[in-house]
Structure formats: C-alpha cells, structure tokens
Specification:
The chain is an alpha+beta fold. Helix content is 45%, strand content 10%. It has 3 domains: 194 residues, no CATH class; 228 residues, no CATH class; 134 residues, no CATH class. It is built from 19 helices and 14 strands. About 22% of the residues have low confidence.
Length: 622
C-alpha cells in the first residue's frame, strides 16, 4: 500500500503544466492506481499532478527565501501572474494573461539543458467567488460573488530556481474553464503584461473562443438553415388544407407570387416598430443581467407586461374602429414569408457587426471559424444599438406578444367562418391557456436574464428566426387548426383539460421561482431548508425542493401544459399535436446540452448530483 504524502484538503504548491511555476493548490483526492493527485487551483482549474510536482507550502517558501538571498542583484526579475489571480476582465483575457506570463518565464528549447536563471512567483490573495446556483434550465447559470480573505500574504514573494523537466509525465488537464491558445513566441520582444495579453487574445484563432460544436456541427448548420424555414412553410400549407391529414403529404404548393404580399411586409414592420417603441419607453424597472466574462452587468428595461397590456389596448381600439384582424388568418403564409425575410436580414446584420466586436463581446459557442455555423449560432453575445438590446427585445416582444395577437385573430376568424356569435370552448381554452403562459413570462420577465439564451448563446439566425418566425407561426397551429376543424368539448373534458393546465402551470411557476430566487440570493432565510451539493467552482447544486424531485421540474410543468394545449383539438389529426411532439424533442435535446455542460463544469460534483437526483424530467420514467 503506497504512502500518501498529501491528504485531502491539504494546501500545497503545485507545478503549472509545461512550466517551472508553482501555485497554491488544494488537494482533492489521490488515485492509488495512477499515483496521481487531483488538485484544484484558485481559479477553479482541476489537474492531476505527480507527487514530484508538488511541494509543501512551508518548505517551498523556506527554500525560496534561501535562494532569494543568494540571487544575483543584476539578474532580470520576471514576474508571472498566478492563474488564481482574479480581475474584472473576461475569463478569456485572464487565461491569456496566464499564458503570456507562463511563456515569458518558461525555458526555451535551446536552453532546456542550461537553465540556471531564477524564476520568481508572486503569491497573491484570491477573492473567492462563491455563487449558489441551480445547474438546470435551458437558460442558466448565475455567478454571485462573495469575497473571502485568502490566508496567503499578498506581499510575500517566493523565488525558485528553474530546472529542466526530466521524465515529465503527461499532465491530465481535466477541466479548463478558459480555453485559450497558450502558444507564444519566446523570441518575441517584451511587452507590458496587459498589452501582451490583449494582443494574444486578439490574435487567437476563432476556434479558441468557441465551445464544442452542437446542433450537428458545421454540416448541421447547413441543414438547419434550409430545413427550418421550409418546415414552417410546410406546416402552414398543411394546416390550411380541408383535410390536414399527413396522408395528404405533400400539400399542394401554391404559385410563388402567393407567398409574397407587400402589405403583409408592411404590417410586420409596423408591428416590430410598435413593440420597439414600447420597449424604449421609460416605463418599468431597469434590471441587471448576469455578470459577463468581463465582470460587467448589462442593464435591461423589463417592461414586458406593460408592453402586452398596451398592445391589448391598441388591438381593442383597432377592432372597435372596424379593422378586420381576420386578415392575419387569410394572409398567414404571406405574413410568415415577410417575417422570415426580416429574420434573415437581421441575421446578416448581426453577423457583419460581430466582425467588429471585441473578443470579450463574443459568445463562446458561435466562433468556430466556419461562416455558416457562426451565422447560424450567432457570434456576438449581447449586440446592442446604444442601450437597445437586440437579443433581449426579440426574445420577449414581437414574436411572443405576436403569438397572442395571432391567436386572437384566429378566434375572430373562427366566428366569421363558422357563423358563431362567440368562439368555441376549444378555441377559448387554447387562447386563454397560451395567453396565461405569455403573460406569466412577461410578468416575470427578469427571470429570462438567467437563461441559456441570454447568458450563453450568441445572437444569430438560430435565435432571430426562432424568436420572430418559429414562435408566432408554429405555436399558433392549434388555434389555426380550430378555425376550420371544430372540436366540441363536454363538461368532463373541459374539467380535465383545465385541471391539467393548472397543475402544469403550478409546477412550472413554483420550480422556476425557487430556482431564480436561489440564484439571486442563496442566503435568503426562506430558502434555508433547501439542500445543496457544493462544487469546485464555488457554486452549489440544488438537490431538494422541486429540484430534488427531477433535474428539470420546470420542463415537467411545460410538458403538462403542452398536453393541455393540444387536447382541445381532439385526436383525429396529428398536426395540432405538433407542439407537444416538438416540445418533447426540444426538451430532451436541451437536457443533453445541460448534461454535457454541467459535467464539464462541475466534474465529480455533477456525478454526485446525478446519483442524488436520478430522474431528468418525468419521475420514475425519464
């Protein structure tokens, strides 16, 4: 049985891979098979080190002081920045600074056998980031900072003599939070540290600023760019048939000129401008977003509930003045085509302007270097025109409120087409259920600031098309279907459907509120009963309350509500169940993205979380 020199929790000095620099680390575990220690640096990076690459802090400092006294006074002093050093710059820039400092002090290939120069390491205290957050949700991750004192003296300096690395084993870098290329030219003239870091980051290849590709990678991007618009147009053509059965596939394709109507384009532009006007009005609160990689928090005007209320008043006045909103039903295809054109033009603008964005303004997921993939995924994280946030506006306003407007127009079209004095019960349920969903989202608009779309995804075709086209023109299929295909509902069916909706909404709202409150203030006494699992990043994972039942209780509530939206349409055709089917696929895909990202970020803590909360979305099923 080998002797373990360092125990779990010990704080020692560990060598940084590929250099002669030592930094303070905390021992997490020891693997008897590989004879490697798992340690964590102050910036959250976990490595596996050999025992010969670790030294006790006391002995290390004593040896360093001894060498400091014998050091030649004329010797050049080279200072490196610890990877644990925290700044208010972006995490990518921090990684570049570490790379620059490590390269400056590392021996060149020509001097490996003769290196005698002393290398100095400055030990600095690190403000520990302690954030409590729940890991799940398609749209995630907040960092709440709570500085704690570090026990290392800020002014103490330790100097060690550089030595050639003999028989250096392979370092297993288990997780790097900052994936930046650390290769530099040793013969490069010296620059001030910050300038050198900025130069390295600017010169880094695009792939260095990108996370692993998803949605099928580069080939997938081509597929989705073609498939998604075609699928929306197919659904509209199919649902407009007298018999929308899928056995009638493909639907007859109308003449090309029937896809286009200038008046429809004008209507869409007017609607977007109207929502933009409501967005910029100084009504509602200014909310802070999550910290960016630079440490900055953007401000957002969260007045979505005011926007939908004002929109409802304007629509009511328009109907009272005799404007026929059934135009939306009769020109649904033309409106969809016009909105598709606007989303494409917006995506082109977003891609072009992203070429002038600074590296810390780019999203990590949309900078692969492939034009079509980056166009699809989105390069810039928070594109703004002054204080007008394009992504936040499109996410919550034109498409979401437009969804409710279209549903209302479909109810009017049903009354007109079937000669009714009032909409059918099925149409009323669909309108009310989906209106409640949208109003709830706008009332709690601030919660979207902690979602994946806002925090991690760049703004490109994927979100622009999804927000402006996909949501209003596919989520309204149930109402569109009911215009020509009525489905009478009895009292029992009404009671069951309403009960399902209320149960789903309760689960959705309570679980989301619990998560968002925990993210924003984990020390709230009202949340003291919740159990958590700490992680190496300083964040915590919720394992009780709603988030102890399944990993995504908000997804469970969403699915129950989707079921309640589809049931009023009956079961004679599959098309009105499209939303339910699509949503299952969407949530399973989001869950897989969450799993990959959280396992990368939290390591062994995530494995423990998965053992504690076994089911993903549906208890005892999935």
């Amino acid at each position: 049985m080998p002797t373990v020199k360092y125990q779990k929790g010990d704080r020692v000095m560990g060598r940084w891979p590929g250099s002669s620099l030592y930094y303070e680390v905390k021992v997490l575990s020891f693997d008897t098979k590989s004879q490697l220690y798992t340690v964590i640096y102050k910036d959250g990076t976990e490595l596996e080190l050999k025992e010969q690459d670790m030294r006790s802090a006391a002995g290390f400092q004593a040896r360093s002081r001894s060498r400091s006294r014998s050091r030649s006074p004329g010797r050049r002093r080279s200072r490196s920045r610890s990877p644990a050093r925290t700044t208010r710059r972006s995490s990518s820039r921090t990684a570049a600074v570490v790379a620059a400092a490590a390269t400056e002090t590392a021996p060149s290939s020509r001097r490996d056998t003769k290196l005698k120069d002393p290398v100095e390491v400055r030990l600095t205290p690190l403000p520990q980031t302690k954030a409590a957050e729940n890991n799940t949700n398609n749209k995630h991750e907040k960092a709440e900072e709570n500085n704690t004192a570090n026990k290392v003296n800020e002014t103490s300096e330790a100097k060690i003599e550089g030595e050639p690395e003999k028989n250096q084993g392979r370092y297993n870098l288990r997780r790097r939070r900052d994936d930046v290329d650390t290769k530099t030219d040793a013969a490069k003239p010296e620059q001030p540290e910050e300038e050198e870091a900025a130069a390295k980051l600017a010169a880094a290849p695009a792939a260095a600023l990108s996370t692993p590709l998803d949605f099928g990678g580069k080939i997938g991007a081509y597929f989705w760019l073609l498939f998604l618009p075609a699928w929306v147009l197919f659904l509209i053509l199919q649902v407009n048939l007298e018999d929308p059965s899928l056995t009638n596939f493909p639907p007859p394709v109308p003449l090309l000129e029937s896809f286009w109507d200038a008046q429809a384009l004008g209507f869409v532009i007017l609607w977007i401008l109207f929502q933009a006007l409501l967005y910029v009005l100084p009504v509602g609160k200014l909310s802070e977003g999550m910290p960016l990689r630079s440490g900055e928090r953007l401000k957002y005007r969260t007045n979505g509930f005011f926007a939908i209320a004002a929109s409802a008043v304007v629509v009511a006045v328009a109907v009272h003045q005799g404007i026929d909103l059934t135009y939306i039903h009769s020109n649904f295809l033309q409106l969809a085509t016009a909105t598709l054109l606007i989303s494409v033009l917006l995506s082109v603008y977003l891609y072009v302007r992203s070429q002038y964005a600074t590296p810390d303004q780019l999203a990590l997921g949309g900078n692969s270097g492939n034009l079509m993939y980056d166009f699809f995924k989105g390069r810039e994280l928070n594109p703004r025109i002054k204080n007008f946030d394009l992504k936040f506006f499109c996410e919550m306003r034109p498409g979401l409120i437009g969804w409710c407007l279209i549903n209302f127009a479909m109810a009017l079209a049903e009354m007109k087409q079937q000669g009714l004095d009032a909409p059918s019960y099925a149409m009323i349920l669909v309108n009310l259920f989906q209106l409640l969903y949208v109003v709830d989202g706008l009332w709690n608009e601030e919660a979207i600031l902690t979602t994946m779309d806002l925090m991690h995804d760049g703004f490109g075709f994927m979100l622009a098309f999804g927000d402006l086209v996909w949501v209003p023109f596919t989520y309204t299929l149930q109402a569109y279907y009911l215009v020509s295909h009525s489905n009478p509902l009895g009292p029992l069916a009404l009671a069951v459907i309403i009960a399902l909706k209320l149960i789903g909404f309760y689960i959705f709202r309570k679980s989301n509120s619990e998560k968002n409150n925990f993210r924003r203030n984990p020390s709230d006494p009202k949340l003291s009963h919740l159990k958590t699992i700490p992680t190496a990043t300083g964040k915590s994972l919720l394992v009780s309350g709603w988030w102890g039942v399944v990993r995504h209780p908000n997804y469970l509530g969403d699915l129950i509500m989707a079921l309640a939206w589809s049931l009023p349409c009956g079961v004679s055709h599959l098309l009105p169940w499209y939303y339910m089917i699509y949503f299952i696929i969407l949530l399973v895909h989001r869950d897989s993205r969450d799993m990959s990202e959280c396992r990368r970020k939290y390591g062994s803590a995530w494995d423990e979380y998965c053992r504690t909360v076994r089911y993903r979305i549906i208890p005892r099923v999935y």
